[in-house]
Amino acid sequence: MTVMSERVEKGQPAQDRRMEQRQAQVWARLQDVTDPELDESVVDLNFIARADVDSMNRVHIEFRLPTYWCAANFSFLMADDMRRAVAALDWVEGTSVVLGEHMYADKINAGLARGRSFQETFGAEADGDLDDLRQTFLVKAFQRRQVALLNHLIGMGHSPEAIVTLKLAELGCLPVDDDGARDDGAKGDGARSDGERLVRRYLERRAVVGPAEPDGPAFVDTDGARLKADGLSAYVSRLRRVGVNAEFNGALCRGLLSVRFDLETPFVPRVKGASASAVVQHEV
After folding, report:
1. 0.85 cut: is pTM over it?
2. Which of 75, 87, 125, 245 has an alpha carbon within 20 to 30 A of 284's alpha carbon?
3. Which homologous superfamily is 3-128+262-281 in?
């Protein structure tokens, strides 16, 4: 064996490991992208059909949705969030996001390939601003996560007075589970307990409705006002309806996706006026 071939042989595993690491980083970023209405990861919902990294450090993502007629703004929002999430990795040189088997796939994919916004892609057909839509559903996600945590804390025996007077810094130190309560099988959370996971998810959305300072109130309404102890029960009851509706829609989406694609059907991207493999380059 020559010296050159030995170097290639020794270097190949390192290159493979680097590629595997980058592939894992891409999937980790996509894990944080959520369906705007359901507030569930697009990865957990099985929306992602492919996410690959090529030799030029460009990322190619293909995804599909439960129905052919999912709203164009929702579909574009998810694609844009995927693009933003992956582009935040410092080694990524470009991204390609392609939607398959959707009534607006041609238009959405052409817009994405050219790096256009939703308004630029759909023109007069665009209904509202994508950032406003994103904010609307972030607020709904905040409400869902908040009521899930409040239900848990109330179930643990924490009084309304103790809950509403908590500061954000104190929330992370609050006993939120029975001793030894762990969910070792929780995807992405390792051995994190149910209560710890609920706290983490709530804190991820707390800043959506107001400043999230350590000395600020842990629990506020959508206007940023601290919750009141004497109205906490009624407040939680109202928010439960938000969670129930979202849970029903989530189950419906999973069912529709599995029936439509059986999760084994090869992905079929469609695009007109632009190559399906077109990559949006990122400026240095």
Report:
1. no
2. 75
3. Fe-S cluster assembly (FSCA) (3.30.300.130)
